[in-house]
Amino acid sequence: MKKLTLICLMLSLAVITFAQKDFGGVIKLKTYAEGTTDPNILSQSQSEYEETVLGSLTKIVASQGGIGTIVIRDGNTGIMNVILDLSAMAYGKYLVSDTLNLKLIQFDYEYDETDTREIAGYKCKKAVVTITDLETDDSEIRNLYVTDDLMNPKTYKSYDYPGLKGYPLYTAVEVDNAGEKYTIIVEASEITPSKKVKPIDFLLPAGWEPIQNAPESVKAMFGLGGEEDEE
Q1: Which of 68, 75, 79, 178 has the most Cβ atoms closer than 10 angstroms to its Cβ?
Q2: CA 12/CA 18 separation, integer angstroms
Q3: Sign, CA torsion 221/204/196/9
Q4: Residue ranges of the domains in the chain?
């Protein structure tokens, strides 16, 4: 009986230890719209993609309309790097960077946790986040469902939602399109843990230039052109 008790204790400690580790693996996500019957909005909002995750590091690789993108976020350093690959358009690869410090200077984040639901096999709690622009006092509300079962709360830091406790597996954002309001939803559909995901997977690929070195026509494509942006 003592031996059985010891085995059960060891198993329970193993589960606790596993739960305290940061998740490494791939999360499949789907996007879709609710609250509208417009076929154009419904079709344009539907997509699926994968996000590679290792603790506070995330990476998304996507391609649309001849533009390839690699988005790497690091909640620990507070840096987001975006590689724009315009090779298919006879241009090169360009790097756009952003920092969490700039976001925190301009925006304030408040969270209110409510009910729970299960998403992709994980228990999640609802977190209503109010994002306030500190310059204009305009605010936006997003509904998230976050899980505590993927990340170690002592080490995990979210780049997208500073101070958020838990990892978001569902995000709902209301959109106002010329008076027509609808909701865009990003939801995890499958979560696959993998020990093969390593920090090296989140390094920037070679062969890029800073976006400041891009032709003016490229900057204009992404709203980065003009004298104001060059100062």
Answers
A1: 75
A2: 10
A3: negative
A4: 22-216
- DSSP codes joined into one string, 80-112: EEEEEE-GGGT--EEEEEEEHHHHHHHEEEEEE
Contacts of 157 (CB under 8 A, 6+ apart): 56, 75, 76
Q: Tens of pLDDT along the chain (231 residues)?
A: 544 444 443 444 343 334 457 899 999 999 999 999 999 999 989 999 999 999 999 999 998 888 999 999 999 999 999 999 998 888 999 999 988 877 777 888 988 877 899 999 999 999 999 999 998 999 999 999 999 999 988 889 999 999 898 999 999 999 988 888 999 999 999 999 999 999 999 999 999 999 999 999 888 888 876 544 444
Write the burial class of residue 98 (CB in 10 Å: 0-12 exposed, 13-18 middle, 19+ buried): middle
DSSP state of 196: T
Give the Cα separation of 58 and 50 in Å (integer): 10
Class of domain 22-216: mainly beta
CB 74 within 8 A of CB 80: yes
The first and second tokens of residue 100, run together, are 């969490």
Question: What are residue 55's phi and psi, to 5 degrees?
Answer: 60, -125
Count of other CB atoms within 10 angstroms of residue 39: 8
Q: Which pTM value belongs to this model?
A: 0.81
Contact 52, 73 (CB under 8 A): no
